[in-house]
Write a structure and sequence with these properties.
By secondary structure, the chain is mostly helical. The chain has one domain. Helix content is about 75%, strand content about 0%. The chain contains four helices and no strands. The longest helix is centred in the first third of the chain and has 13 residues. The relative contact order is 0.16.
Length: about 60
């Protein structure tokens, strides 16, 4: 994911899904340790619901 797309993705998480800055921080720390698909990391840590996971993948398809 490019840095511009990543910034838009983080904005989407904050604005549309109302994720807290703490959740975003957990995501970023986790990705540094174990790179992987960002949506799945959010779900595995229990930071988003399955419905939100679907919304994220829908958003990513449009980007």
């Amino acid at each position: 994911m490019s840095s511009a797309t990543y910034a838009r993705f983080i904005n989407f998480l904050e604005e549309e899904l109302d994720l807290s800055s703490e959740s975003i921080s957990i995501l970023e720390k986790s990705v540094q340790k174990n790179p992987g698909p960002l949506p799945m990391i959010l779900w595995q840590y229990g930071l988003i619901t399955l419905e939100q996971l679907d919304l994220i993948y829908d958003w990513l398809e449009k980007v």
